[in-house]
Batch of 3 targets.
Target 1
Amino acid sequence: MGLIGALAGAISPGVSAAANYRFVDEEGVVHYTNAPPPDAAYQRLVTRSSAPTVSRQTVPGGYSSEIQEAAHRHGVDARLVNAVIAVESAGNPRAVSSKGARGLMQLMPATADVLGVRDPFNPRDNIDGGVRHLRGLLDSFGDLSLALAAYNAGAEPVRSYRGIPPYPETQEYVRKILGLYSGDLPTSRVAPQRIYRLQDKDGTVTYTNLPPRVRSGR
């Protein structure tokens, strides 16, 4: 089973969610599969619907139709996209990280350029680009946890450490998304980001989640 089993629940949006299984190994790594597990340590996940959908209540700000369309187009479970957006931006299309990642799925400028996303603050374009990026990582690593770690920390650190890098931020990131994806963590526990709108002397408007510096007047 291994890599294929861990990926099964993330790449089949049309497969019934009634037979998904979850297992946490000795190192704390969470594995998922929708195939009958040979190991009794796997626990069956109980879901409410055999055809999972994303509602406006599960992603702050909505965008359920954009999520469903991109998920279907690129073969990624819409619930997974929903979880990534909740953790990345709390559903704020104008979110900007301290490192410059932008929009709902927090695309870095270089990544957005490679994906052909001209306006990362456009919800539809951002979601489509983010899902395509996630799809590529799933194909590259063949493991959901590693793909999520690469989405957060980059592919090279994951390859270098041959697993989830020992970065507290990345490890917490993966834990949160898997928790939301499996239903173990309510979306309401993901704190929304506060976004600031700054305008310089030239009239250029910038959105950021970094509090503006208060000048002392000296």
Target 2
Amino acid sequence: MPPGIATNQFLYPRVPFDPETDFSLLGHVASVPNLLCVRKDLPVNSVAELIAYAKANPGKLNYASSGIGTTVHLSAELFKRMTGVDMVHVAYRGSAPALNDLVGQNVDLMFDNITSIIGQARAGAGKPLGITLLQRSTLAPEFVPIAETVPGYDTTSWTGVAVRAGTPKAICDKIEADTKTICGDAVLKERLAGLVAEAVGTGASEFSAYVVAERGKWGKLITDLKLQVE
């Protein structure tokens, strides 16, 4: 179950299912933050400097994304809204070509999934300014949270487990329990950590509440901006 379960109903004119009633959410498996990187010759070295630069040059900066409505795109739009900066969106078909243009200095910045961009960030091919978490990540502690400059800024990509609504309770209970067990497995945690992803392991009630909050957060932003995927 990807983040689209909380965003697609706002992005698409028609969705062939009701994301709020057609599924039973059973467990939050993993969470992956995004990393804000700018092209290496952009004259900023912190989130505060980026905001100041963008405000001094409204509309001059552009940012790449892996497509309209992705967490990469929405992270940038939330940043724009919370900071009051004006940047131009350049949408790509996927993260790889967007990241290639960032490294090639054809675009100014990108909020990419940390799993995809961390290699380039650590190698200096892009300049990392901040991670999209409220606190430092234990898996990538060298990256300063954007929230230290923009209080409350918090975005992640995530995955979870769900079944079709109406699935017998005994089956749901078993899947929920097994999901919690698997998320606590040391081998899984180690493998996820290698991707800079955190095992979450919360159950049905917590995951349902999380998705409701995500739906409210992103639904308002998408609706306000009139974003739509054809």
Target 3
Amino acid sequence: MISLRNIEKTVPAPGGQTFLLRRITLDIAAGEFVTIMGPSGAGKSTLLAVLGMLDGAWTGEYVLHDQLVHKLDNRRRVALHKQYVGFVFQQYHLLDDLTVAENLDVPLSYRDIRKSEREAIVADTLDKFGMVAKKDLYPSQLSGGQQQLVAVARAMIHKPSLILADEPTGNLHSSHAREIMELFTTLNKAGVTIIQVTHSEENAKYGNRIINLKDGWLV
């Protein structure tokens, strides 16, 4: 599903360049649940941004679903992201002025889907995630765990084959963290490939493989 060859990422620094990623060569099969770990500054979130095509300033070869990402222009990368990738952030990234239902509708609104069909998909997702009673609430009216649940639902609503999660439980109480991780496990068992960045040894246990980074290198 994913093949990386010699991925490198640099940023300008006094006297030259600083490497954030060094010679990353990695394969991830469809249906895996992979955890990326390492100390702060190791390059974990940078690698996740490359995988999610949120960062295009890197060198090397990246293949996703037989698509040569490194040869695609930005417009086609954006289209590939929308087709295959759901992203879950630590800070939720919900739109504060939209209700839960409206937040869920946002990814669908970018697609050629009739309004009535979008409403049906949102209603089904609200039911699946147990959020029907909260559909008209705004993010500020939800707990952190509830906001992250909405964020996961929003990431999944267009049925991506790949979920990328950057410290998805970093701001949550342990009980809410378990709920989110168990949800990821359920999605993974249904065939969704999941790659999470975490500092939590407990969260890492939910996956089937751990990738360690240090100073931008695979270790």
